[in-house]
Fold this sequence. Notes:
This protein has 342 residues and is α/β, with parallel strands linked by helices. The chain has two domains: 7-123 and 307-324, Nucleotidyltransferase, domain 5 (2-Layer Sandwich), CATH 3.30.420.40; 136-301, ATPase, nucleotide binding domain (Nucleotidyltransferase, domain 5). Helices cover 42% and strands 19% of the residues. It has nine helices and ten strands. Helix 1 packs parallel to helix 2, helix 3 (114-120) packs across helix 9 and helix 5 (186-193) crosses helix 7. The longest helix is centred in the C-terminal third of the chain and has 32 residues, at 236-267. Bound molecules: 5'-O-[(R)-(carboxyoxy)(hydroxy)phosphoryl]adenosine (KG4) and zinc ion. Zinc ion is lined by residues 114, 118, 142, 276-277, 309.
Amino acid sequence: MSKKSIYILGIESSCDDTSAAVLCNGKVLSNVVANQEIHAAYGGVVPELASRAHQQNIIPVVQQAIQRANIDKNQLKAIAFTQGPGLMGSLLVGASFAKSFSLGLGIPLIGINHMQAHILAHFIDDENQQKPPFPFLCLTISGGHTQIVKVTDYFSMEVLGETLDDAVGEAFDKSGKILGLDYPAGPLIDKYAQLGNPKAYQFTKPRVGKLEFSFSGLKTGILRFIQKGVAENPDFIKENLHDICASIQETIVQILMDKLKNAVKETNIRHIAIAGGVSANSEIRKVLKQAEKNLGWKTYIPKFEYTTDNAAMIAVAGYLSYQKGVFSSVAVTSSARMKVDE
Ligand code: KG4
Ligand code: ZN
């Protein structure tokens, strides 16, 4: 009756969140995330400050994750950490800590691709989350990436299309900056959009390939529109903030949905998942749910805590790798650039 308990520690430090999680057989026992508030004052992530904050946070965050999981560190079977992509200084902190801890405990080390982990968050064992069957399409939308990925197995992924310039998270954050909102502006635009009219203003959508994205033109369009509005009325932003946010969000979500429809047409795959920080957006979640009825898709929407950067997704990827018997050597190196299909 007793199934072996495989405890995996996951460590995530690719950007500005220090996170550690403990999973038992794919179930989350703890998932601690320390956000770095310091970057808000600079309107974006400052790499050197991020590395330093990781150094401060990593040991307490890991200690908390083990404590909250209510296990002893000697029960851990392996340590998974983010190998890349991300900011090099941030990645090095997580990798070096993971190496030392795994050597100290005498357990294996598993280097994880952060982009794969965002997608593999769907395989966390959670009664409120359904696991997608293979093959499925995943729209990975974050502060650094925007891509449609065909997933044929846990570690077998192919990018069907991606952004030619800015990521969709940047489109949210840079639009927010134009509006004078704090970084990261994505969640704020989402919040204000709930109170606004999404049809109030129109923005031009980019003309790129069927499965490609581009957001730099949209950003320029929004900047010009705001400059013109403010020139006519200095209180333009304040008076229309909700409508502006709703219209920006509507345009972005429409762009994402148009591309997803194209990908479904091309692949005939109707199991659609979303992943990454921007998948926390309430409008994209709502529109995808509606697509189940309107378009006959089956959609997979992760729980909020597994959308933005977190270590539970790194740990579940580690658990799947552990089951396959795939481990990293102690000589494994961090990689700032790493593709989802590597
Ligand atoms: O995946 P993530 O936490 O970090 C990266 O790997 O980039 O994604 C962060 C991005 C930020 O651009 C943030 O503004 C955006 O996700 N984001 C949102 C929402 N929550 C986070 N964008 C729109 N709506 C949200 N609710
Ligand atoms: Zn991420």
